[in-house]
Amino acid sequence: MSPSTSQVSNTRVLIAKIPEGVAPNNTHFETVTQVEDVPVLKENEIFVKNIIFSMEPYIRLDDFTETTRQSRVVGYAIAKVLESKNQAFPVGSTVFSSSEWGQYSHIHLPQYLKDVTRIDEIIDPSLPISVYNGVLGVGGFTSWDSLEKIGNLKAGETIYISSAAGTLGQLAGQLSKRKGLRVIGSAGTDAKVQFLLNDLGFDAAFNYKTQDKRQALTEAVGPAGLDIYYDLIGDVTVEIALDLMNPHGRVLAVGLLAWHQNARPHVPTNMINILYKQLRYEGYTVFDRHEFFPQFLQEIGPLVADGSIKYTDTVVEAGVEALGETYVDLLGGKYTGKVSVQIAEF
Ligand SMILES: NC(=O)c1ccc[n+]([C@@H]2O[C@H](COP(=O)([O-])OP(=O)(O)OC[C@H]3O[C@@H](n4cnc5c(N)ncnc54)[C@H](OP(=O)(O)O)[C@@H]3O)[C@@H](O)[C@H]2O)c1
């Protein structure tokens, strides 16, 4: 697009229908290309060209109604600012933002504008840009911040992390090891289990799809008992964790992977453990924690750059139309850790 043109051809991926009672699949997405006017910006607004989308298990839908039968999807992306009415994000700057799944996005709603972060000055050129979607992006920040804010980690304790080979799980495990905890993880393939044990230094790990979860977790926890369950899935596993908990243990409710696959969130039937063992069951959301992001980058950035913190990172180089399929594959377990879709040159 040249600055003088007032229209762009914009390919978007929309939700064609809401998955009801089934995991999302390719039929739920639709690719649409149309010529659109470049918006006339109001104060604080920006218009961006999206470069590389972060695939998040959780996606936000804008305006899906019975009348439209379609919805725009909002996900995280690294983008270049093409037009700006916001001094913090001048034309040409690189931002991390909540962007609609498409080539261009008009960022105007206050809830999305407040999330925009300028990243030109914080990018470490020795690292691939995709790390700012993953271990140094919202996922990594969520792991670090949730453990700091509600984890109260103590050396010698035992933590169990579900979806441990995912973006949050990988960092949560390594941060817990660095604080001297005994770390147990679960994942859905033997290769991921081996990765947790051999590459990330987990003390124990099991395949939740092929092993009996209660037996595997009970054996991994052993006589020491469980102190923390870092719950990324929100399914029945929490009941096993509650049974294995030591007095004053904590359940950190951070993710809902089972729900993203359209399973109903599980309500534990053994909540009585909370009373008898004086447990804490606490939720966390990243949405109001933006102000702590610089501190996170300062602390974790150098550890990622010097290899002390490990991560896996896949970049799918493709057109916008790959977003839906990659999202489906992410939920299905195809990737280990962060997957990004790069739709334009950086
Ligand atoms: N609270 C917050 O503010 C916040 C912020 C960011 C992310 N989150 C949430 O944290 C969770 C983890 O995020 P992430 O980015 O690190 O994703 P992730 O763990 O990389 O998610 C993808 C993986 O989830 C696993 N999975 C899918 N369905 C599952 C199920 N029913 N049971 C167990 N594992 C399942 C698959 O691995 P396997 O091969 O192991 O099955 C897949 O590879 C998500 O729910 C995300 O929305 C919360």
Automatic annotation (TrEMBL):
Keyword Oxidoreductase found: yes
Chloroplast keyword on record: no
SMART domains associated with the record: PKS_ER
GO MF entries: oxidoreductase activity, acting on the CH-CH group of donors, NAD or NADP as acceptor
Keyword line: Oxidoreductase
Enoyl reductase (ER) domain ranges (all copies): 94-341
UniProt cross-references to Pfam families, sorted A to Z: ADH_N_2, ADH_zinc_N
Gene3D superfamilies per UniProt: Medium-chain alcohol dehydrogenases, catalytic domain, NAD(P)-binding Rossmann-like Domain
PANTHER family: PROSTAGLANDIN REDUCTASE, PROSTAGLANDIN REDUCTASE 1
Official protein name in the record: Enoyl reductase (ER) domain-containing protein
Species: Podila minutissima
